[in-house]
Design a protein that fits this description.
Order of helices and strands of chain A: EEEEEEEEEEE
Strand content of chain B: over 45%
Number of strands of chain B: 9
Largest sheet of chain B: 6 strands, mixed
Distance between the termini of chain A: 39 Å
Oligomer: heterodimer
Number of helices of chain A: 0
């Protein structure tokens, strides 16, 4: 069974940092592109970042570029999202998602990690 | 900042057919596959439709989807109370070079 389990969410002050982790199991992690998608409270879905199989290619939404860094450790079957210089508008549930292809569908989603940026 | 436009709500009585539209442009729906996701309150989204009209295993055939030019639609036939959820369309955008989502539609079963 495919499982994606996020951790690391919490309350952080504006300007602070947080690192999200996503532990993957039930599939060959290194064979899949991985992404982060977020959802602000009461709002819709927004793509945040994507990383390729090896970790050598990444892409970011303009709203997080230069502040967030996506990475992966295929030996640990884990995806990461390092979030720096956090703003109130980054408050959201962050979902770890799997996709077979870079431009394909998000076929499995984690349960999400809540990040709240507030003083 | 959603790129794809959906009606905010749709409703129907049990057994009825409900249709949700998703409007985009030539850089997304017009040239790429459309996906649909279902999200129940307090839970993560799940993939409902991929490659315009394909259902993952386990998705009832009451759910169907189509695409035409720069628009797509999701139909729920034989509406059931358990279909109450938010529905999002999505597609790759060639200009933005990333996935874009629709604004979302809340389906209510009256």
């Amino acid at each position: 069974e495919v499982q994606l389990v996020e951790s690391g969410g919490g309350l952080v002050q504006p300007g602070g940092s947080l690192r999200l982790s996503c532990a993957a199991s039930g599939f060959t992690f290194s064979s899949y592109v991985m992404s982060w998608v977020r959802q602000a409270p009461g709002k819709g879905l927004q793509w945040v970042s994507t990383i390729n199989l090896s970790g050598g290619t990444t892409s970011y939404a303009d709203s997080v570029k230069g502040r967030f860094t996506i990475s992966r450790d295929n030996s640990k079957n884990t995806l990461y999202l390092q979030m720096n210089s956090l703003r109130a508008e980054d408050t959201a549930i962050y979902y770890c998602v799997r996709e077979l292809l870079w431009f394909g569908e998000f076929d499995y989603w984690g349960q999400g990690a809540l990040v709240t940026v507030s003083s | 900042q959603s790129v794809l436009t959906q009606p905010p709500s749709a409703s129907g009585t049990p057994g009825q057919r409900v249709t949700i539209s998703c409007s985009g442009s030539s850089s997304n729906i017009g040239s790429n596959y459309v996906y649909w996701y279902q999200q129940f309150p307090g839970t993560a989204p799940t993939l409902l439709i991929f490659r315009n009209n394909q259902r993952p295993s386990g998705v009832p055939d009451r759910f169907s989807a189509s695409k035409s030019d720069t628009s797509a639609s999701l139909a729920i036939s034989g509406l059931r109370s358990e279909d109450e959820a938010d529905y999002y369309c999505a597609a790759w955008d060639d200009s933005l070079r990333h996935q874009v989502f629709g604004t979302g539609t809340k389906v209510t079963v009256l």
